[in-house]
Amino acid sequence: MPHKRSVWDGVLIAVLAVAACIMLLPYAWMVLSSLKSNMEIVSGSGGFFPSQPSLEGYRTVFQDAPFVTWLLNSLVTSVIITVITLLTSSLAGYIFAKHQFKGKRLLFMLILATMMIPFQVIMIPTYLITSELGLVNNLMAIILPNLVSSYGVFLAKQFIEEIPQDLLEAARIDGAGEFRLMLRIISPLIMPMLSALGIFTFMNSWNNYLWPLIVLNDESKMTVPLALVYFNGTHQVNYNVVMSAAVLITIPVIIVFLIFQKQFIKGLTMTGMK
């Protein structure tokens, strides 16, 4: 029998709808502000919607700055970080979940402990190491410190622990080595988790602002979050240009999420948390 909605169901739906509108309001304001003139935003005379929609802010973004280069820099670094993080997380998670070795528990606890340390604490040592390696103003300075994720290792371990040991033993009896076992058996089974972790990693890398601000001074090596600083003038802020850049920065993240949303939700709901 179909479930009959009660009055409380209607109230709950209304509350969720209001909450969704509140969460989406800043994004709607950002998009609409990108279509306004800077004078209209500063004066506040146009209200919520633009009185005369214009794409001048978007034209300024592409004409006055190498924004396409910044997009490519962010895309390259984010994709490389995401792919290698998924590889290192799945391999380490498999080792911790299915293999026994001396010091395993202590090593895993040390990895988990790094999740509690804010990046600001290790920022100066990381910069000094990066400088000693000659990687300042190099995209490798963005990539190298982010190739291993303690959260990714933890998530992969929790997920792989749910795979029956008998299944792995049967594959080994059939002659599967560790590489084939990982490639043919484990990887397909943990694909939802990898999708969820991949989206998280890509979003964090794409939106990373503080570390690129520290290690990148060359305009040609900048990533898109730094564009928001670039378009801030010394004495005046062109708000419509900044909002246009913010919209363009947000679009790739939305596209990635829409493509992988089913795997993302499935990965969150299936991950075992022992």
From TrEMBL:
Coiled coil: none annotated. It is a multi-pass membrane protein. Residues 71-260 form the ABC transmembrane type-1 domain. Pfam families: BPD_transp_1. It is found in: Cell membrane. The chain crosses the membrane at residues 7-29, 70-94, 106-127, 139-160, 181-203, 241-260. Keywords: Cell membrane, Membrane, Transmembrane, Transmembrane helix, Transport. It comes from the Bacteria. Belongs to the binding-protein-dependent transport system permease family. PANTHER family: ABC TRANSPORTER PERMEASE PROTEIN MG189-RELATED-RELATED, SN-GLYCEROL-3-PHOSPHATE TRANSPORT SYSTEM PERMEASE PROTEIN UGPE. This is Carbohydrate ABC transporter permease. It comes from Paenibacillus medicaginis. The lineage of its organism: Bacteria, Bacillati, Bacillota, Bacilli, Bacillales.
